[in-house]
Amino acid sequence: MMLTVAIALAALSGTSLAHGGVTSYLIDNKNYTGYVWYDPYESQHDLIQRSWHMNPLSDPASTNLTCNNKGLAVPGTFHASVTAGSTIRATWLTPDGYGWPHTLGPMVAYMASCGEDCTTITDTSSLKWFKIAEEGLRAGYAVGEEDGWYQNDLWENRRTEYWNVTVPAGLKPGRYMIRHEIIMLELNPVQFYPNCAHLEVGGEGDSVPSDEFLVTFPGAYSLKDPGIAISGKVRGDKTTKNYTVPGPKVWKGE
Ligand SMILES: *[C@@H]1O[C@H](CO)[C@@H](O)[C@H](O)[C@H]1NC(C)=O
Ligand SMILES: *[C@@H]1O[C@H](CO)[C@@H](O)[C@H](O)[C@H]1NC(C)=O
Ligand SMILES: *[C@@H]1O[C@H](CO)[C@@H](O)[C@H](O)[C@H]1NC(C)=O
Ligand SMILES: *[C@@H]1O[C@H](CO)[C@@H](O)[C@H](O)[C@H]1NC(C)=O
Ligand SMILES: [Cu+2]
């Protein structure tokens, strides 16, 4: 117990320990364990999630931004079945019970059509992503107020360790990559924490997003975007009460 507290405090105060990513997904009542970043790639198999490392990414122009470094599919990787309109619950929780360590900044989720098969895609930078959900600054809060951000809710023992996003009900069935991302605005340079996984969407939908909703990673973000340029200046800012989440508008599936 004391050890857990000590580790949590150490991780909070030290920036090098204080990182992470999506560790499991709950999809249509099935729990899909994620890639374990501190275990060797060779030891992992049968996951929907691509490989990742806990370290932050800071260059919006790097191919590392797409699916977290190389974001490789593991042997036996597959697509998780999900019905359009269902909730996907992503958890940021390590096996030792230690959760997401940062508080200030938005959370976003994207999907991209894989065509025939997500599992065989090696170059994820050609995928066309559409945003399905975002958690920006809550109304009435300033950017420096932790309670203004859902990211703060993820903090261990604070309120919750997960984020629910809904697969747009109108989305056409097919195979899609999902990309969750936490953007940490505490420091300059900014820190991006993306994670990718494979989905097989079923249901009755027949919609696909039009071009105005589609972006690539890298490509979607610039260090000049207001919601990124502000990184390193939010802590202590009790006056800025607007925040523009980077990337395209959320596609609602219509
Ligand atoms: C899903 O599995 C992970 C890893 O085994 C576990 O930490 C988590 O508690 C599980 N979640 C649910 C909802 O069962
Ligand atoms: C991607 O990240 C890895 C590991 O941090 C680094 O060695 C590599 O140079 C990065 N590649 C690019 C294109 O930024
Ligand atoms: C998130 O989804 C789970 C089911 O996957 C549900 O039990 C939980 O109440 C949802 N939480 C919120 C905050 O919507
Ligand atoms: C807040 O709004 C102002 C005025 O529209 C804009 O210039 C600024 O970039 C916005 N700030 C953020 C962080 O989005
Ligand atoms: Cu960190």
Commentary on this structure:
With 254 residues, the protein is mainly beta. The protein has one domain: Distorted Sandwich (Coagulation Factor XIII, Chain A, domain 1), CATH 2.70.50.70. 9% of the residues lie in helices and 24% in strands. The chain is built from 4 helices and 9 strands; from the N terminus they run H-E-E-H-E-E-E-E-H-E-E-E-H. The chain has helices at 2-13, 64-67, 150-153, 226-229; strands spanning 24-27, 30-33, 80-83, 87-91, 107-115, 129-135, 162-166, 174-184, 191-202. The strands form 2 sheets. Strands 3-9-8-5-6 form a 5-stranded mixed β-sheet. Strand 8 (174-184) and strand 9 form a beta hairpin. The longest helix has 12 residues, at 2-13. It is globular. It starts with a helix and ends in a 25-residue tail after the last helix. The structure holds 2-acetamido-2-deoxy-beta-D-glucopyranose (4 copies) and copper (II) ion. Residues 226-227, 230, 242-244 line the site of one 2-acetamido-2-deoxy-beta-D-glucopyranose.
